[in-house]
Design goal:
Blueprint lengths: L2 H4 L7 H25 L5 H30 L7 H6 L2 H31 L5 E2 L3 E2 L8 H35 L16
């Protein structure tokens, strides 16, 4: 490999940009659908939303695996040096902790949802054609134990995503660190 291949670019590479924005849109969408379907009365529409929610969860799980694999293969660019210089140690720690927690929840939320669905006796058939194995054996008591953890972990992820967005906007518009240019599709490295 040439020395150029070992250098880390100042912006995210195209695959990382694409996966970031697809995951961002998918997370907002699946969270909104989850909120909507939770309070609906039993109906064909509610069942359809539950299926879509499960399909999206499996797609998010798959995308998260791809994204983590890419991140291990291609580390993210370092934060801009002026930003690092301006950030107190607690903000740098919060930045890293938020990143790690979000990545953990990208896996935890759909896996707990899958476990709940399996325990409740509702199989997941992705797009209506790809049946997935049960994550756990059907057990109504276990389903009742798991159900709140899916909701808690989903709200935790939503909170971290909100914090991530707020921090990015603060660094972009208040601190003027031009942070968003690193992940926008218009400016990227090959």
């Amino acid at each position: 490999m040439s020395e150029e291949n070992h250098s880390i670019p100042s912006t995210y590479r195209i695959p990382a940009v694409i996966m970031h924005w697809i995951l961002a849109i998918a997370l907002v969408g699946i969270f909104a659908v989850g909120l909507l379907m939770a309070d609906l009365p039993v109906s064909p529409w509610r069942l359809k939303l539950f299926n879509w929610h499960k399909w999206a969860g499996i797609c998010i799980l798959t995308l998260s695996l791809l994204r983590l694999s890419w991140r291990l293969y291609q580390p993210p660019p370092p934060l801009p040096s002026e930003m690092q210089a301006d950030m107190p140690a607690w903000q740098q720690l919060a930045h890293h902790a938020t990143q790690y927690a979000m990545y953990a929840l990208f896996f935890i939320v759909p896996l707990v949802g899958w476990a709940y669905s399996s325990a409740a006796g509702f199989p997941i058939v992705v797009f209506g054609v790809l049946p997935l194995p049960d994550f756990v054996m059907p057990d109504k008591a276990l389903a009742e134990l798991i159900k709140p953890w899916h909701e808690i972990s989903a709200f935790a992820l939503a909170g971290l995503v909100g914090l991530h967005i707020a921090a990015a906007l603060k660094h972009q518009f208040v601190d003027k660190h031009a942070l968003l240019q690193r992940i926008l599709p218009s400016r990227h490295s090959q």
